[in-house]
Write a structure and sequence with these properties.
11 strands, 5 helices, six-stranded mixed sheet
């Protein structure tokens, strides 16, 4: 019997919130090391990360280290009007505020064009080995990724329990090119 997307979301959210913090830290560090070893990361000049919340793979150290390596880091800003996201530059030490859906974002906004990105790091509640992803249900990333040039690499980050054998995908669901997990 196949679970519905709502049931999968519920189970994964429970696992994310009940995971021990030391496990989350250890696995996030392993995922960071995997990401930083990829060719696409090494080549990338402008990287869009997400700011982790709700038990997701931690990205704070990834962001800081990428900035120290001289990479321009952007984070998504959720737009109220079209339920989509725009990349916004994140300067070192920038003040953050709580945005739409409780997600942190830069208090001062300097948007960059999505065409300027050379890598997009994508969150998800679940992924399968084919790159299908299950988000939180608003479709923001699907709309963003659909407009993104196919030449821009996309990498999903997940914990091992977020990797499923398969996810049913609809026509509007956009795959990521690679998934890194621990």
């Amino acid at each position: 019997m196949e679970l519905t997307k709502k049931e999968i979301r519920s189970k994964i959210l429970f696992r994310l919130q009940s995971q021990k913090e030391e496990d989350r830290d250890r696995k996030s560090k392993t995922i960071k090391e995997k990401l930083f070893r990829t060719k696409v990361f090494k080549k990338a000049k402008n990287i869009m990360f997400y700011i982790a919340f709700g038990g997701e793979v931690k990205t704070e150290e990834m962001i800081k280290e990428a900035q120290k390596l001289g990479k321009l880091v952007a984070v998504p800003i959720c737009r109220h009007d079209r339920i989509t996201i725009r990349p916004c530059a994140l300067r070192e030490g920038a003040r953050l505020k709580t945005g739409l859906y409780g997600i942190c974002e830069p208090a001062k906004r300097k948007f960059i064009r999505s065409q300027e990105l050379s890598l997009v790091v994508v969150p998800g509640l679940a992924f399968d080995k084919s790159g299908n992803r299950l988000g939180r249900g608003k479709g923001c990333y699907d709309r963003f990724l659909k407009k993104l040039s196919n030449s821009i690499p996309t990498i999903g980050l997940a914990f091992d329990f977020q990797i499923l054998t398969s996810l049913s995908a609809k026509a509007h669901d956009i795959k990521v090119k690679k998934v890194l997990f621990a």
